[in-house]
Amino acid sequence: MEKRQLGKTDMQVSALGFGGAETGFSNTEAEALRRLLGAALDAGLNVIDTAECYGNGEEAIGRAVSDRRKEFYLFTKCGHAGMEGLPDWDVRMLERSIDRSLQRLQTDYLDLIQLHSCSEELLRKGEVIEVLRRAKAAGKARYIGYSGDGEAARYAVTCGAFDTLQTSISIADQQAIDLTLPLARERGIGVIVKRPIANAVWVNPDRVNDYTRPYWERLQALDYDFLKDSPSEAVGIALRFTLGLPGVHTAIVGTTKPGRWQENAALLAAGPLSPAQFEAIRSRWNAVAAPDWVGQS
Q1: Which residues of 13-32 are buried (b: 16+ CB within 10 A; e: fewer)?
Q2: Rounded to an integer, what distance in angstroms lies between the CA atom of residue 7 and that of residue 163?
Q3: Residues 87-96: contacts with CB within 8 Å, 24+ apart?
Q4: How far apart are CA 102 and CA 100, in angstroms?
Q5: Among 121, 128, 194, 227, which one is least packed by beta carbons within 10 Å?
Q6: Mind listing the pLDDT tens digit for each residue in 159-171?
Q7: How far is CA 2 from CA 17, 120, 268, 276, in A?
Q8: Is pTM beyond 0.85 here?
């Protein structure tokens, strides 16, 4: 699988990464997760991204692949732990959350620790950033990042504190292409894309929920021609659109199906979209997108 240097870090990340939300919230059985992640690592994927608020996701990943720790980069996020009655973003809570993540993931260091969608106001105060800086200085994390969208993400890119940005970009979520991606590229910030295929919400319309509904509604209005093609063809175009954007380094995809990594890698093997295909998607977005079509966490 293609590898890309993640901004100014020393990490050569696979174009596709594993996103742990789906398996964490669904309480995927331990042996199934071991097979799933084993297949992903065997296929050349080397990024695993999770968060302390993804159900039992950290513990499950720790049990499943801690014996292969040197084969992948391990990313997690902090900020929503709700520990011991402390509010989200309390400095003490963040510090304890990072230590708990290390324990759950069965590792003594993280390749990346990220603030999980805190507000621009909190970022500007600086206390939450200092927690991550202290974790890095103590060897608990090699790099620090911000995960989020909109103006808070723009501030995170420009403030000079972070090595990476994780943000939403897809055929149904293009605000970041203009708002943050060019600035991140200028500053050498590594970009990790979440929800890179808009949760493939058009494939299973009967399973639309509160989380995916904004993308479903946007895609009804965008009415891209290629979404009428076979599901695999449409997913391939969506994935190639996102990963073809200058400045995007890796895209994390969640799945519970072990063969999905090979399928997605095969779709990427077709290479970047043609300029005409790419411009058609961008032009349609610019013509249709409403002012409130902002980045979705």
Answers
A1: bbbbbbbbbbbbeeebeeee
A2: 7
A3: 88/118, 89/118, 89/122, 89/128, 91/127, 91/128, 91/130, 91/131, 94/128, 94/131, 95/131, 95/134, 95/135
A4: 5
A5: 121
A6: 999 999 999 999 9
A7: 11, 34, 9, 24
A8: yes
